[in-house]
């Protein structure tokens, strides 16, 4: 007995209804409970939007505008986000949540489009060939492709982590939209549009800059310059450095510089510092999944007035944490030079995963950065059911192990920092194991 698969339209309507219901519920819940459904970041965004619209004493930008979103402490995002959420002040407090939820749905539409037009057709062709050889007739592959695309898209649209984070007021879905638009343009070989969206993505949050390496590798491998080169180092250089890749780099960097220059002209140094420079020397001693959390806690100036030891200082140095992270994320982007555009999805997934695992600060919302690409990657993963179950259990289990200890610290006030850090190391090892299995199972 086969389980009927709903249409994509039904899936889309259900996901919209779910998000609207959760946003309405969040308003009811927050009005009646001390423990809020809405994320603290959403209050930060709203306060920044209020400062943009309503000048007050001390709220003065260094540029020509009088209102500065960075008057709000802990607002360390692009000022464009504060501008986007100004209707929170004069229209409705939940306006931003609806924007984030809408981006969730848009992301689902883009994922479905990529599956239908780029990823699943090659499987349909193979299935049609096998069907003709076995029965002498072809099957309704179009319907099968749409059903598969609907199932894969449901992994995003009905993912509790995805819809809960956006309806609680996290802005990650906006960045996800820019990233998927970049990917859509690349798979359609619209290099200039892709470069513009990559520049916008990097302005919004700096980490998508790691995708530039794999983008250049793809564009270069598809260019006529690489085909005309001989084998060896010369071919590799012509793949990476040619007119197409140079243009892509300049357009992408130019978009990033233009947006940054515009924001600097309007809001001055606070924009530059809070959006970018702060993150270079950021020390976050609060508990998180990162392997750097406990050494940072031990060396944190406010908690440790004495001079930290040399090993502790070395381990918490920004260069120490950035170096393995960047080497792995950029190196994996260089490692997958291919003329198959679908390999770009695999490359981005691996790059993002290692970036998140080895980031000096890692919370649950960062998992969305690579989970966004999972529905597009799954069709090319060939693993047994037992291995797939093992991956899911390992991924969820290591987080549950960490969360059970974090609960003792957060809610019971127990001194479990060392034990929590050890469990964080288990999380790192478990996630690396899952990533290795995924890499071994990937086949185009």
UniProtKB/TrEMBL annotation:
EC nos: 2.4.1.-
Keywords, ordered alphabetically: Endoplasmic reticulum, Glycosyltransferase, GPI-anchor biosynthesis, Membrane, Transferase, Transmembrane, Transmembrane helix
GO BP term (any one): GPI anchor biosynthetic process
Pathway in which this enzyme or protein is active: Glycolipid biosynthesis; glycosylphosphatidylinositol-anchor biosynthesis
PANTHER family named among the record's database cross-references: GPI MANNOSYLTRANSFERASE 1, PIG-M MANNOSYLTRANSFERASE
GO cellular component: endoplasmic reticulum membrane; glycosylphosphatidylinositol-mannosyltransferase I complex
Protein's cellular compartments: Endoplasmic reticulum membrane
Broadest EC class assigned to this enzyme: transferase
Protein name as catalogued: GPI mannosyltransferase 1
InterPro entries according to UniProt: PIG-M
Principal localisation: endoplasmic reticulum
Bilayer topology annotation: Multi-pass membrane protein
Membrane-spanning residues: 7-25, 98-116, 178-200, 206-225, 246-267, 348-374, 386-404, 416-438
One Pfam family here: Mannosyl_trans
GO MF: alpha-1,4-mannosyltransferase activity; GPI mannosyltransferase activity
């Amino acid at each position: 007995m086969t389980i009927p698969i709903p249409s994509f339209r039904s899936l889309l309507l259900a996901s919209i209804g779910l998000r609207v219901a959760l946003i309405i519920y969040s308003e009811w819940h927050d009005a009646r409970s001390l423990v809020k459904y809405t994320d603290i970041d959403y209050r930060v965004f709203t306060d920044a939007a209020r400062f943009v619209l309503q000048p007050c004493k001390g709220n003065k930008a260094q540029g020509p505008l009088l209102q500065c979103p960075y008057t709000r402490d802990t607002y360390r995002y692009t000022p464009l986000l504060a501008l986007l959420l100004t209707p929170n002040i004069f229209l409705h407090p939940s306006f931003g949540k609806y924007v984030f939820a809408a981006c969730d749905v848009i992301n689902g539409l883009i994922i479905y489009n990529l599956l239908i037009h780029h990823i699943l057709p090659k499987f349909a062709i193979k299935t049609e060939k096998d069907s003709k050889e076995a029965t002498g007739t072809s099957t309704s592959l179009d319907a099968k492709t749409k059903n598969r695309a609907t199932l894969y898209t449901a992994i995003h649209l009905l993912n509790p982590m995805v819809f809960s984070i956006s309806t609680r007021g996290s802005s990650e879905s906006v960045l996800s939209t820019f990233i998927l638009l970049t990917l859509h343009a690349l798979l359609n070989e619209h290099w200039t549009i892709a470069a513009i969206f990559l520049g916008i993505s990097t302005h919004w949050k700096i980490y998508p800059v790691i995708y530039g390496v794999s983008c250049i590798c793809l564009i270069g491998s598809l260019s006529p310059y690489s085909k005309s080169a001989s084998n060896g180092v010369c071919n590799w250089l012509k793949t990476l450095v040619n007119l197409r890749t140079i243009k892509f780099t300049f357009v992408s960097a130019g978009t990033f510089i233009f947006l940054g220059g515009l924001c600097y002209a309007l809001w001055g140094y606070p924009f530059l510092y809070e959006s970018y420079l702060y993150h270079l020397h950021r020390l976050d001693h609060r508990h998180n999944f990162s392997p750097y959390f406990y050494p940072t806690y031990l060396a944190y100036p406010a908690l440790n007035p004495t001079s930290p030891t040399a090993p502790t200082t070395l381990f918490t140095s920004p260069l120490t944490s950035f170096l393995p992270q960047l080497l792995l994320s950029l190196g994996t982007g260089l490692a997958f030079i291919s003329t198959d555009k679908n390999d770009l999805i695999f490359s981005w997934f691996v790059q993002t995963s290692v970036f998140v695992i080895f980031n000096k600060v890692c919370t649950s919302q960062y998992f969305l950065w690579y989970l966004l690409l999972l529905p597009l990657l799954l069709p090319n993963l060939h693993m047994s059911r037992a291995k797939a179950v093992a991956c899911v259990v390992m991924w969820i289990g290591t987080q549950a192990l960490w969360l059970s200890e974090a609960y003792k610290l957060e809610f019971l006030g127990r001194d479990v920092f060392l034990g929590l850090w050890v469990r964080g190391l288990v999380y790192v090892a478990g996630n690396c194991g899952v990533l290795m299995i995924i890499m071994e199972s990937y086949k185009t």
